[in-house]
Design goal:
This protein has 96 residues and is an alpha+beta fold. It contains 5 helices and 2 strands. The longest helix is centred in the N-terminal third of the chain and has 10 residues.
Length: 96
């Protein structure tokens, strides 16, 4: 418990030796989804990568509002990436 803070919790996200734990912490982000209140862990690298640079028709998530995408469990920082996905096969590129 954090001294001076009531109702605080500690969550261990990854336990490893020093160097490996720091490497993991550089690769992943952790956020609380404001819609569901759930803890989300995702690769930070995905944020900066784009799925496709060529202009194409809007994907299936492009018409949804940010609030709706958060409710679906998409972290705030990954909403632009989710909107850029045009085809089902591109989801694999985002996940990998």
């Amino acid at each position: 418990m954090v001294q001076g803070v009531e109702n605080s919790s500690v969550v261990l996200l990854h336990v490893d030796n020093h160097d490996a734990a720091y490497a993991w912490a550089r690769r992943y982000r952790c956020e609380v989804n404001p819609s569901s209140g759930t803890l989300q862990i995702f690769e930070a690298q995905i944020e900066t990568e784009s799925v496709s640079e060529a202009p194409q028709e809007a994907g299936p998530l492009a018409r949804l509002r940010d609030r709706q995408l958060r409710h679906l469990g998409i972290p705030e920082t990954l909403i632009p990436v989710a909107r850029s996905v045009r085809k089902e096969t591109e989801w694999d590129q985002v996940k990998d």
